[in-house]
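note to self: dont lose this again. the chain is below, predicted strucutre after it. 96 aa total, dont forget to put it in the shared folder this time
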Amino acid sequence: MLIESGIRFHTLFEDEEKNDDPSYFTKKMRKHLKKKKLKNIEQLGVERAVVFTFGYEDNKTHIILELYAQGNLILTDKDHRVIQTLRQFKYTETAQ
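---
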């Protein structure tokens, strides 16, 4: 499967070449998804966000793909607690 944050996702007919030096996020995903099968894909309501669920019950892991602006990829555990994000954003409160 090819996932491009903020743009698209689709299946591939051929395996893509793996990068010799994957990003930290890719390493985390590989660690948490190792040997898990994709069990479900669902859109969150009418939002431009898709949840991929891997594994069963206590061994579940989710990837949340945001399909807007630059988007983001969020790796979560079975309870949707964030493990890692592709992009991190810092919230700053502005004076009014």
